Amino acid sequence: MADTLRFDGQVAIVTGAGGGLGRAYALLLASRGAKVVVNDLGGKVDGSGADARAADKVVEEIKAAGGEATPNYDSVENGDKIVKTAMDTWGRVDIVINNAGILRDRSFLKMTDQDWDLVYKVHLLGTYRVSKAAWPIMRQQKYGRIVNVSSASGLYGNEGQGNYAAMKMGIAGLSATLAKEGVRYDVKVNTIAPIAGSRMTASVMPPDLVEALKPEYVAPVVAFLAHASVPESGGIFELGAGWVSRLRWQRSRGGFFQLASFSPEAVRDKFEEISDFDGHPTSYPTSNNDAFGEIMSNLEGQEAPP
Ligand code: NAD
């Protein structure tokens, strides 16, 4: 088909591609012509251990289907080595899918520094390190697509996942900023919050749901976000089982106060108005400056209190 989305001549890095969602992304991109660095440390869900077979297996699958792939076994903490594998093998990097992940769920009371640090290292630091190494290459060639992986747990919060949620929200913040910094260089950065059955979700989902929510029902979105034709940068998409939605911030109109009588009691008395999303027009901010109009309008005509 003439309008089939292809990746011929492009090089993609998919982190954590030895299983689960990452494997599905790598297989789909490779089936459409991308040369893929299949990165995976091959550890357990909690981040312990390492095994080169995870990445090797997916590389073999891709090759068996007629595609091109090479393995990389480094932790995403060593993002520069992963990017080096792409550069040494094929001399370019067009696509980065920051997918590698672990879980160390604990209530905040029981969470150890190690639980926090390991989840930080794989998710937020790993996303930073791989992106940081690929960024100058993408900027230089004036082209790049990065898909970062957040989670509903991060965007909304989830009991027992304080470490994971913090990093996944951090990833969303990094993505929003990189999207702005990449605009002039055709480097587009989008974020997904997927749901799929995998070994990661096997501990919280019944087996039939793990089986039903296939990673393949998420992968087409990642491929589109990684494609040259994607119109968007800075988006957050929540998806699973073939359902795809987009998220944005909504801001209430807000409460406007007389500065001379601005007090905790005044805030209490207007708290409903501050939090009202239905009775007044709301807005959908996309930058720091979006609040400036309201801020300045409240100042206008008001004397600074003594
Ligand atoms: P998974 O455990 O099947 O896959 C994660 C992969 O990352 C594994 O193959 C693992 O070996 C690899 N990995 C772990 N640490 C690594 C490191 N330091 N360096 C390189 N590779 C490493 O889990 P999954 O469900 O496929 O998750 C993929 C991503 O999607 C994760 O970022 C996860 O947080 C996110 N996510 C998944 C779901 C879901 O429903 N499955 C929901 C929200 C977010």
TrEMBL record:
Whether Oxidoreductase counts among this entry's keywords is: yes
Q: Which pathway does it operate in?
A: Lipid metabolism; fatty acid beta-oxidation
Residue stretches spanning the membrane: none
Keyword Oxidoreductase set for record: yes
Gene Ontology biological process terms in this record: fatty acid metabolic process
Domain named Ketoreductase is located at 10-198
Q: Which GO terms describe its molecular function?
A: oxidoreductase activity
Q: Which domain of life is it from?
A: Eukaryota
**Entry keyword set:** Fatty acid metabolism, Lipid metabolism, Oxidoreductase, Peroxisome
Q: Where in the cell is it found?
A: Peroxisome
| GO CC, alphabetical | peroxisome
- Identify its protein family: Belongs to the short-chain dehydrogenases/reductases (SDR) family.
Q: What is this protein called?
A: Ketoreductase domain-containing protein
**What is the organism of origin for this protein?**
Nannochloropsis salina CCMP1776
Full protein segment contained here: 1 to 306 of 436
